[in-house]
Amino acid sequence: MFKAKGKRIKASDKQLVYHFFLTSTLLTFLVILISFHLKALLAVDWQIIRLEEVLSKIQTSYFIASVTTGFFVCFILVLLFYHYRIDKIKELQHRQKLARMILQNGWYESKQVQSEGFFKDLSSTKVKEKISHFPKMYYLLKEGLIRIRVEITMSIVLPIISTPLMVIKGNL
User: Fold this and answer.
1) Contact, 169 vs 147, CB < 8 A?
2) Partner of 28 at 20 to 30 A CA spacing, among 130, 141, 152, 162?
3) Which runs of E-coded beta strand occur in the chain?
């Protein structure tokens, strides 16, 4: 009765693999650095902090060793993820390719929006394109099969008229 649709493809998925690895390694790196320097961070008086004190702490061998350890652990984490979870990486790559396909072919509705400049007192004449409707597309990798569900609208003006979701099956 209940069927999983899969992961929804969004416009922000065009850099999905890069964002996934950057976020996961950056969070891991920060957790490692904080765990190494937690005692020093708790002892800092944040009301009167000076640049000279910060620079003197950074140039120690303990800080360099903790950064090196952080990079090494992140590298090992990426290698283990690539070795044991290659299907997850392929899934991310497929979702990224689908999002890029939609964006490159222009299969979305957009509207022109006047963007405001950084300074409010200066008039801005920049017109920016903003996505108003991104098609509903779902990606599911299950039992070696890729299932892509797409809502096909018959008209851009009348989004009410639509066909049922179509399922495309293919081998990996």
Assistant:
1) yes
2) 141
3) 7-8, 109-114, 127-133, 137-142, 145-150, 166-171
Q: CB–CB of 135/153 below 8 Å? A: yes
What is the tally of structural domains in the chain?
1
Q: What is the 3-state secondary structure (H, E, C) of 19-57?
A: HHHHHHHHHHHHHHHHHHHHHHHHHCCCCCCCHHHHHHH
Q: How far is CA 80 from CA 73, 74, 89, 120, in A?
A: 10, 10, 12, 49
pLDDT tens-digit series, residues 13-41 = 999 999 999 999 999 999 999 999 888 87
> Which structural domain range is residue 77 located in?
7-171
Q: pTM to 2 decimals?
A: 0.75
Is the residue at 130 inside a domain?
yes
Joined tokens for residue 67: 């950064």
Q: Hunting for tokens 């690895």 — which residue is that?
A: 21
Tell me the two tokens of residue 118: 């950084």
Q: What is the pLDDT of residues 123-134, one digit of tens each?
A: 666 788 888 888
Domain contains 1: no
DSSP code of residue 151:
-
Burial label for 139, CB within 10 Å (0-12, 13-18, 19+), is buried
